[in-house]
Specification:
Elements (H helix, E strand, L loop, with lengths): L7 E4 L5 H12 L3 E6 L2 H13 L4 E5 L5 H15 L4 E4 L14 H29 L3 E6 L12 H21 L4 E8 L8 H4 L5 H9 L8 H12 L10 E4 L14 H26 L2
Parallel strand pairs: 1-2, 1-4, 2-3, 4-5, 5-6, 6-7
The protein binds nicotinamide-adenine-dinucleotide.
């Protein structure tokens, strides 16, 4: 029998990237998966992957920055799938910019999703777990950016450093209910959010990243999903309040990267794709 058979996982932002990889892995290990996301098209695609693995999936349109929406989503998870054993606070956005320019709207949206949204997700899920009395596992997705920062990403770093420290307090508070809380700090993972850092496959940005990364490749959602699976499964029982970096060794490597002409052209293409994606998702984010 797979290790997570009979368990139900609630994975925010599983309509894309790392969250989708986590949903797939947990389903492969036997869990049914609830998928709260602002992007229901992406969430439905993930639900199909979960169903193809023989597990039940339930999509909920929910914005983690809304207390009402996330409380309702956690309740709906229990109503439709019968339990809530594993919660992954994964939904996040990246809004960068220099201190002379970053808008208050971008600053606030990022705080609302990456910090308040994680708090609200953990609170909503932990309340269900305590009520159901089966204990639980909570995993929050922080970032390598909680460790160090640089021009244009300090605001994102601030939110991720907040997550990294909050899990330590939550781990202490929720232990008596049989609930563990841990955080993961991914390095550069190949997803739409990090395309500017990961570059295009075979492109100049990617080959520079690969050569600077000690394990010589970019991260994949499946890498992070493997660590989530450890924290959510029987081997993770004694771990709480921890923050684990998974970055292929990138944290100790100089960030010094001087993009050449090819890389600049690539960055231009990626920038256009990111702007189009943000233009599609921003109205959904503004619905609270
Ligand atoms: N990709 C990386 O290199 C990397 C590195 C470190 C940390 N992270 C973190 O991992 C998490 C996942 O990132 P990703 O790279 O998979 O991004 P992604 O953009 O591919 O996916 C994010 C998903 O979250 C959803 N979402 C965004 N805001 C939401 C909200 N308020 N409510 C509900 N759903 C929302 C989006 O619709 C999308 O489906 C984020 O917290 C991100 O900060 C990513």
């Amino acid at each position: 029998m797979a290790a997570l058979t009979g368990k139900v996982a609630f994975v925010t932002g599983a309509g894309s990237g790392i969250g989708r990889g986590i949903a797939e892995r947990l389903a492969r290990e036997g869990a049914d998966v609830c998928i709260p996301d602002i992007d229901t098209d992406g969430a439905e695609e993930t639900a199909n992957l979960v169903n193809q693995l023989g597990r039940r999936a339930h999509v909920v349109k929910a914005n983690t920055a809304s207390e009402l929406q996330i409380q309702k989503a956690a309740a709906e998870c229990v109503e439709k799938l019968g339990r809530l054993d594993i919660a992954v606070a994964n939904a996040g956005i990246a809004r960068g910019g220099p201190v002379l320019e970053l808008s208050l709207k971008d600053w606030q949206d990022q705080l609302d999703v990456n910090l308040t949204g994680v708090f609200l997700t953990v609170q909503a899920c932990a309340r269900q777990m305590v009520r159901l009395g089966n204990g639980g596992r909570i995993i929050c997705i922080s970032s390598l950016a909680a460790e160090s920062t640089g021009p244009g990403i300090w605001a994102y770093s601030a939110t991720k450093a907040g997550v990294r420290i909050m899990v330590r307090g939550w781990g202490q508070e929720l232990g008596e209910h049989g609930i563990t809380v841990n955080a993961i700090g991914p390095g550069v993972i190949e997803t739409p959010l990090a395309e500017g850092l990961a570059g295009e496959p075979g492109g100049a940005i990617r080959s520079s990243l690969e050569s600077r990364t000690p394990v010589k490749r970019v991260g994949r959602p499946a890498d992070i999903a493997g660590l989530v699976n450890f924290m959510a499964g029987p081997d993770g029982e004694f771990m709480t309040g921890s923050y684990v970096i998974m970055d292929g060794g990138l944290r100790d490597v100089s960030r010094g990267y001087d993009p050449d002409e090819n890389a600049l052209a690539e960055l231009g293409r990626i920038g256009e794709r990111s702007m189009a994606r943000n233009a599609r998702l921003q109205p959904l984010l503004d619905e609270r």
